[in-house]
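User: Hey, quick favor. My workstation is busy. Could you predict this chain's structure for me?
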Amino acid sequence: MNKEKDVVDISDIPAAEPHDPNVVLIFDTTLRDGEQSPGATLTPEEKLEIAYQLSRLGVDIIEAGFPAASPGDLAAVRRIAETVGREPRPGKDGRLRPPPVIAGLARATKSDIDKAWEAVQPALRPRIHTFIATSDIHIQHKLRMTREAVIERTREMVAYAKQYCDDVEFSPEDAGRSDPEFLVQVLAAAIEAGATTLNIPDTVGYTLPEEFGNLIRFLRENTPGGDRVIWSVHCHDDLGLATANTLAGLQAGARQAEVTINGIGERAGNTALEEVVMALWVRKSYFGLDTNILTQEIYRTSEMVSRYTGMVIQPNKAIVGANAFAHEAGIHQDGMLKHKRTYEIMDAETIGLHHSRLVLGKHSGRHAFRVKLEEMGYHLSPEELEEAFRRFKELADKKKTVTEADLEALVADQIYQPPETWVIEAVQVQSGNNLIPTAVVRLRNASSDEVFTEAGFGTGPVDAIYQGINRIVQIPNRLIEFSLKAVTEGLDAQADVTLRIEAEVPASPGPNDQAPRRQIFVGRGLDTDIVVASAKAYIQALNRLLATRTAEESTIEVK
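Assistant: No problem, here it is.
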């Protein structure tokens, strides 16, 4: 994939577009709230590629990060603002639309807001999103402030952000557990100071759908100036109600939904973009609402985020799970054969998922391979296509049939990779009953091109491989999770290994954070050989760790 793109001439593209009250704006926070999932840390390159895909998907607002969190996060948000935030994208009608709004999150402090503006300023449509807690439990125990002080801070900081940026969003954190009458006062102060979007977050996933819908309705009807702003909802899934609460909020008049791809996020996650968008699409006659999302890009976006973050999608996940369009029960299969709408309320093609079974074979040529990948939504550079074709031929020699799922996994495994410091040259294992599992590993250092060979011994073949790799790489870490699944059915199926390791990274510069911090890194490997797939996953996690360390250290040096 092309990580960097030439910025298109934007002189003929409007900087804004009027908001249709029947269109729900999709505010995606995958790169901010989603990245806060344990182990979902993304490199700057990965963030940029996801941002480009979110733009292709038709997302209206991309919350690119929390610039005050670290210099690295600020730099990543600014890079997205300079590129994705200045590039028009196609709309549903095929005509070019303005670039997405690029938002940066900031606490209600001047230093946070300064950093947010520094990050999003290059975008054609920048937004500062500031927040302060409003529930009594947060005000008393976290902020140690009074209600009056919270109102005054809201007024002061929204006005401060407004000096930088016309588009200011304000969120009362933990609104779901806040006193509604107090919320009215806080939100009125935000509107008075210049906020253009008011976001109501159910921060801890506490509310029920009817309750949350009533809260949105109450705030819209009772907040002075509420008719001049766009109301937004941001729900978490702690009780499994994030999507239901979001839809209830939209029914009550909210016209912005804050979501993440695959519903990733802190704790139990956020509202899933694909669930809200497809609920509005399938039940348009009920809601009477639409979005600007190009639904055919949903599956590809979901797969990209899953690969980059290492957050595996559960098979029964709504819309994008492996079983979402599968039918095994006889009654269901009989109904589907007679009329597909008996058990499918949407077509798989609507989200960009195709159902071809036997796709290509070992005698297929480059042209057929390229055309098939383009049908699947992959537009590779000549070099990437050549590498993908080589990998395909290797797979076709090992497997009797190559399915679309195999191709999806193969290409994803190739393009969704962190910068390579270490490359696997060879892996050889010996294990069995009454044998000491032994592995010989040969790795190449990508920067020096030097090759290293070591042996490892362990409790099993995978452990032995990892011990051998550790002898070469010499980075202290702890394996905290390991999972294995098959990409397709059959004894010759490709193995898909996902693992998580924990290791130390340099601390961000600052008076309150000088010690190294522990962070989780995800690796994912694919191969018809389980032990090779395991080695690939471990090397990817180590490469991700090294890329993060390099980025943090270079940021600290610049600082």
